[in-house]
Amino acid sequence: MTTKCRLRILVLVCSTRPGALGPAVGAWLARTLSPSADTLDADLVPLALGDLHLPFLDEEEEPASGVHHHEHTRRWSRIVDEADGFVFVTPEYNYGMPATLKNALDYLGREWAWKPVGFVSYGHTSAGTRAVQHAKQVVTTLRLVPLGSTVALRIADATREGRFAPAPRHAEAAEGLLDELVRVSRALAPLRERGHAGAEAGPLPGSYTRRLGPDDAPEVTVLQRCCWMEEALANDTLAIPALHESLEEVRSWLADWHTTGLWRDGRLLGMVRTRRVGADLHVGRLAVAPDLRGLGVGRWLLRRAEADGEGCRRVVLSTGAASHRNLTLYRKQGYVALPDAPEDGVVDLAKAVPCPAGG
User: In the CATH hierarchy, which top-level class contains the domain 201-352?
Assistant: First the structure.
C-alpha cells in the first residue's frame, strides 16, 4: 500500500427507510463540503447504505478473520478498505442508531481500524445525538476513531416549507467536522499502514516495511539528502545524483525500481532498491537515517534486497571509493570489488548468488 496524496472520505447515508430525510442531508453535505474537500486534498465519496443490499450478517467466519465468502461482503470490504475516513449521516431511532448501520459495522473488522469517523445526525427533540452516542460505543470497539466535531440537525430547524434548508451555522459545523476529519486521518495514516496486509515487521521495535511508490518521492528525497551529504564529504565531491534529483526524477525511478522502505510512526527510516539486469541483480540507494547508524539496519535492508536475487547469477552494487563505512559493510557481507571498476571515484562490487539446495 502506497501513501496517498489525496484522502478518500466515504459519506455514508445510513437510513434505508423509504422517504427518509437522509438522502437530502447527504446531498446537502456533499454540496456544502465539496470546495473545502478539494482544498484539503480529499475526495468525498457519497454512498447510500441501502444501495449495498447487505442482508443481516450472514458470513460463517468471524469478521476479524478477513475471510469473506459472499460477494456483497467482499464488495463492502473493498469500499471500506479503500476509505481513509468516514462521515455517517444517521437518524435516531428509539434512542439509538439504525439497525442497518449496526449491521454494516458488524460485517467487517480490520477494514475499519485507525480511521476517523464523523457524525451528521438528524432527528426531532435530540437532533439525533443519542444515536451518535450509541454509535460511538460500537465504533471505538472496531478501532475507528470518533471525532469531537459533530453536526446535529433538528428537523424542525432545518426544514422550510417541507424542504431541507439548514442554517448557515450547520454549514460551519460541517466545515469544522471535515477539517478535523482530514487532520486526524493524516495523523492516523502510519497506524493504518502498519496494520495493512502488505506491510511486514521491520528490524526495529514498531517499524515496518512496505514497497515505495511515486507518491513517496518527498520522503525519499529528504532521506537521500540526509544520507548522501555524508558521502559527499567523505569522497570530496558533490557530483552525487541522489543530492540533486528533483521530485519528478525521484518519482520516475520509484516507478521503475523495486524499492523497499522501512517506516516507523510515519517517518522513512531507510530504503533500498533493486532491479534485474540480465543475470544480475542491481542493488542501489541503500540508505539509513544517520541517527540510526550502528543498529544493524543497513545489514537488514541489504539482506532484504538480496532476497530478490533468486535466479540471478550475482548481486551488483556500487559505492564511493572513500566511503569506508560502506566498503567495510559490503566486504563483511561477502562482496568483492570488480577488477574493471571505472575510474570515477566509484567502486563496483559483486557477490555470487548461492544456488538453491539441489540446484
Answer: alpha beta
